[in-house]
Amino acid sequence: MEKKVKGTRKGYTTGACSAAATRAAVLGLINGSVPDSIECDLPNGQKVTFAITESGFDGVTAYAVVIKDAGDDPDVTDKAALTAHVRLLPNDLGQIMLCGGEGVGTITMQGLGLEVNGPAINPVPRRNIKANVESVASEVLKSAGIEVTISVPGGEQIAKKTLNHRLGIMGGVSILGTTGIVHPYSTAAFRASVIQGIEVAANQGQSVVVLTTGGRTEKFTMKELPQLAQASFVQMGDFLKYALDTVVKCEIPQVVIGGMVGKLTKIAQGETITHANRNAVNTGLLAEIATDIGVSDEICAEIRQSTMARYASERMEELGLINPFYQALGQRVIETLQTRYEGKFHLRVLMCDFDGNKLAEVEGEV
Predict the structure, then answer these.
(1) Is 272 helix (H, G, I), strand (E, B) or coil?
(2) Nearest CA among 222, 351, 329 for reference residue 285
(3) What torsion, rounded to 10 degrees, do the Cα atoms 190, 113, 246, 343 define?
(4) Which of 89, 183, 242, 364 is 20 to 30 A distant from 320 in Cα terms?
(5) Residue ranges making up the domain that contains 308
(6) Burial (CB count <10 Å: 0-12, 13-18, 19+), residue 102
(7) Residue finishing a domain among 150, 182, 214
């Protein structure tokens, strides 16, 4: 039997699934029964048919459920039941009111471009949901309004696996998506959350944003910088380019990067996306740094031949040169970023080991 190639199948966003469920539910409201499948207009102009896995109409409210298929993209909302309940609003001629139900997060902080205390349904999905309502209910809207309530049963638990709480989105997931399509392994939702996190920090008036590569480095930087608001800390993961481009766009004057040897080396060598599956760590660069701080040619050759950045760090520790080595690495990070972002912000680089212990820090103008 031929083995299936992983990572090739596209999926659909929570926004697209919500729009499809809404369109089907509105047809149920109009016709008295909800269809088993629905063709939905996506934000990118495509038409896609979705299966309706559950539905009902009690004479007042119609509902429909679309199970999210994220394709081959790793996504915490995969298989979530995106549900739309709709009902007529006799006194609200032509209005389409969008509400958040169970499992959809509530906005609690300014900075997301959404109404505080309103549902976490992003602008593109909002427009797409309303456009699909208008497509099938133009006649109904001449004499009444329609209320649409999006819910995601279990969404509060799903949201605990996301960074929503850091953005002030409480009690559930966000309804997201700019095209309606999820591309395999694009991790588009995470990339979007990085950008959104920086925008929230800027909109709250934070003058410093702390970019970390993951949970351990974030915990380390929070310990080092206890005076900063939580909104200043953004886990950028591998998305350095998107993070720093957003910093520049938002005119945030100070940036702190917290990292360990592998990711820092990737940044120093000019990688803007630092994922391990992309270009390999340049251990030749680490050997060059070791040479600059007086390490023997023999050890530098061993570092160059290794495939792991961590090996260089371990050898420096054995030699008692860990601080000067990381000082030099941090300086390389600053010099590399100067070539792309010259004059845009002040940069501080905080470096730790794999147990979260501080090794060095450098700072300078980029």
Answers:
(1) coil
(2) 329
(3) -160
(4) 364
(5) 188-365
(6) middle
(7) 182
Q: Residue 49 is part of a domain; what is its CATH number?
A: 3.30.2110.10
CA distances from 95 to 133, 141, 215, 352, 356 (A): 11, 7, 44, 54, 53
pLDDT at 267: 94
Distances (CA, A) of 70 to 12, 15, 77: 6, 12, 8
Sign of the CA dihedral 206, 208, 209, 214?
Answer: negative
* Cα separation, 31 vs 78, whole angstroms: 30
CA distance 311 to 105: 44
Alpha helices in 187-239 (DSSP H): 188-203, 215-224
Task: Note whether 167 and 201 are same-domain residues.
Answer: no
Asked if 170 and 224 sit in the same domain, the reply is no
338 and 307 within one domain:
yes
Structural domain ending residue among the three candidates 155, 182, 209? 182
Q: Give the number of other Cβ atoms within 10 Å of residue 82's Cβ.
A: 31
Residues contacting residue 256 through CB under 8 Å, at least 6 positions apart: 208, 209, 210, 211, 221, 225, 347, 348, 349, 350
What confidence tens digit (pLDDT) does each residue in 269-326 have?
998 766 555 667 899 999 999 999 999 999 999 999 988 888 999 999 999 999 999 9
* pLDDT at residue number 5: 43
User: What residue ranges of the chain have pLDDT lower than 70?
Assistant: 1-8, 74, 111, 183-187, 273-279
Taking the C-alpha atoms of residue 182 and residue 184, their distance in angstroms, rounded to an integer, is 6
> Which structure tokens are listed for 181?
């399509």
- What Å distances lie between residue 266 and 77, 282, 344, 359, CA to CA? 30, 7, 21, 18
Asked if residue 5 is part of any domain, the answer here is: no
4 in a domain, yes or no?
no
Cα distance between residue 53 and residue 51, in whole Å: 6
